[in-house]
Amino acid sequence: MQDLSLRYIKGIGSKLANTLAKLEIYSGKDLLYYFPLRYQDRRYITPIKEIKEGVHFLVKGKVMARNVRGVKRFLFGRKLFEAVVSDGSGFLNCVWFNQPYLRDYINVGDELFLYGKATLFKGSIQFISPEYEKFSSVDSFNFGRIVGFYRLVEGITQRRMRKIIFEGLKKFSSQLLDPLPFYIREERKIPNIREALENIHYPSTFQDANLARERFIFEELFFSQIMVYLRKARRVLTKGIPFKVDKDFIEEIRRRFDFSLTSSQEEALVQILEDMKKPYPMHRLLQGDVGSGKTAVAIFAIGVCVHSGYQAAVMVPTEILAFQHHQALQSILAPLGFRVDILVSSLSKKMREKIITSLKEGKTEIVVGTHSLLDENVEFKNLGLVVIDEQHKFGVAQRALLPKKGKNPDCLIMSATPIPRSLALSIYGDLDLSLIKELPPNRCQPQTIVVDQENREWVYSFIKDKLKEGRQAYIIYPVIEESRLQDIHSLNQMYERLKKVFTQFRVEVFHGQMSKKRRLEIAEDFRKNRINILVATTVVEVGINIENATVMVVENPERFGLSQLHQLRGRIRRSTYQPYFIVIGSENMGENARKRIEVIKETSDGFKIAEEDLKLRGPGDFFGHLQWGFPHLKVANPLEDLDNLRWARKLAYQVVKNDPHLRKPYHRCIKEHLDFWIGK
Ligand code: ADP
Ligand code: MG
Q: What is the pTM of this model?
């Protein structure tokens, strides 16, 4: 590794180094890769007489007079420094507050650059606290050019940043190894690292700045893809379990379902079974909209695993979901002779211990559980397949733990967050991807109705009608932090009010702060249609599967994200009855909330919704939420830079294919930069 330490850079002492650390700048290379967020065009000098009020101008002029005085009118008698500047076309008055040291810097006769917003004061134009610099410093980073603006913290100014990056470039740019090999730069016609760094920080034209930025966008995507393929290459060399897929057995499972798989489900199943046959571990993401039937597909994979004599583990984020999956697995696979157990924290200690022993001895072939599965004392005899449902509810580290309880088991990861394919490929790292594109047949499109507060009565009578027809309803109340008593309190108030509205029905409240036992009881009663209305928080968002519940009312929709609304609506798309999704708007709805509701009303296509979500929230938020893949992308936005992404994929694939260990001399640069990049 090159030693590009910050301490070699002129002007950086330990104090500044500490400040830079807050910006995650620890090395000279970090500094050079700290790109401006935006630019300002300060190339053109405006004659003073052409200055107009309310606009920013750059002026170059000579100081004609100066003065320091106190101003009583202002708080605490602030000091004011005044200077009158002329460029021959006119005079400009400049004032600075509380910078008395200017007295020692600005003298009559000095030539100054001044950049500020013109304001009118007592009939004449003036600059208040403009940025300034003496013209004598020829190599200005701040004036007479396009200047970059950086994200900063207290303790460093834009000027200082521009200066030290300049010093850093001077010091290191000739030593810096270009992370992109020459042949790739040739192929993509992109500037070399030195030119690109100079142009991204100190561009002469906006075109240069764009070209430089393009290079770094490509570079980021290229390295993200190098990582994808390296991980993949490593995995292919890992010894896994080549499962045997017995056609007759598959048919036996098939017969146990009271529906046949959609062609989309079939396609995904074929891909999964192909993977399972391979001698290296499967690492596949099964993506499909809420209600598309991912579980059914997973049941086949689990069947194949246990039929080959291995154990399978299914991890889900909530107990209710665990019970639901347990039931589904039980009904299909138990009759075929397999033991399905459940492991959640609400079980009695004795029961837990029994299951843990049974798992260790290999008597339990299939286990469904929550985070409990990750407990240290949970061991398997021969874990062959790990299924993780609703993967976004788990952290990256958690997901990695379960497979470690076996010897390179196959992994099937399920997600209802639909992401455009190309994007998924780049952010899900080395996962292979299967998509379920269609919902099971005969599903009704949900009707989405947006109403105002005034229509509340109508909503209640609508619910009553549906309940009389035998259906059930959810009323969803936003409780952002279940641990906040205040939020739970208002949920309970709502519940009390609703009980009075729906006197002839059974209404129950349901939230994460209730005891697990109570929650499971209620879920069971709701499933059996002994409860008509569930007043709930978003705990129902994940997985609850009640076919008879076809009405959902959402209160305070502005407090829900787009994909959350979509997930919620997915709960009532489970049967052949017409579902109704009713959003009660409130006065607090801002622009963004209105847009979200508009999107929800317009479409129920999960992919479209995900794209809109990405647009509304921006990739940072969106990816952060997904907790997967590459948080290091700083300039690239895979959604917008699709073309670059395609190229990056193609070239990275070639690199790893031809030189999987990056040993070729012309790939040394990739290897070196990779360490820097991963370290981010
Ligand atoms: P997901 O996990 O993808 O949201 P599920 O696997 O829970 O969806 O399936 C939702 C519902 O659809 C379940 O009740 C399931 O039994 C049913 N289902 C799944 N596949 C089919 C199919 N091919 N035809 C009819 N119903 C199906
Ligand atoms: Mg599911």
A: 0.70
